[in-house]
TrEMBL record:
Belongs to the drug/metabolite transporter (DMT) superfamily. Small multidrug resistance (SMR) (TC 2.A.7.1) family. Gdx/SugE subfamily. It holds the Pfam family Multi_Drug_Res. The lineage of its organism: Bacteria, Pseudomonadati, Pseudomonadota, Betaproteobacteria, Burkholderiales. GO terms for biological process: xenobiotic detoxification by transmembrane export across the plasma membrane. This is Guanidinium exporter. The keyword Iron does not apply. GO terms for cellular component: plasma membrane. The keyword Transmembrane helix applies. GO terms for molecular function: transmembrane transporter activity. Keywords: Cell membrane, Membrane, Transmembrane, Transmembrane helix, Transport. Its main location: membrane.
């Protein structure tokens, strides 16, 4: 269950990062509320995952999922560039996540 909690925490991190962009610096009510709720949910799920997973592994994977997801969301939703070097760098982050998962018991 801990890995599932960690996955949800990472996906919620993507959600709050995108929400933060749409909140326009917390000047728009509903995007701001969405951002705050997903922030709390993300940290809460990370906390549940940390019951059984090592801190360094869980935190690195949480931020990695958030980084990859937010970068992809930026490209898909906001027209950010998707050059080969950028995509390759995202791929390296994904490899790091897979590597940490493979060497972490639980």
């Amino acid at each position: 269950m801990s890995w599932f909690y960690l996955l949800i925490a990472g996906l919620l991190e993507v959600a709050w990062a995108v929400g933060l962009k749409y909140s326009a610096g917390f000047t728009r009510l509903w995007p701001s509320a969405f951002t705050l709720v997903t922030m709390a949910g993300s940290v809460g799920m990370l906390g549940l995952a940390l019951r059984n997973l090592p801190l360094g592994t869980a935190y690195a994977i949480w931020t990695g999922i958030g980084t990859i997801g937010t970068a992809i969301a930026g490209m898909a939703l906001m027209g950010e560039p998707a050059g080969a070097l950028r995509l390759g760098s995202i791929g390296l982050i994904a490899l790091g996540i897979v590597g940490l998962k493979l060497v972490t018991p639980a």
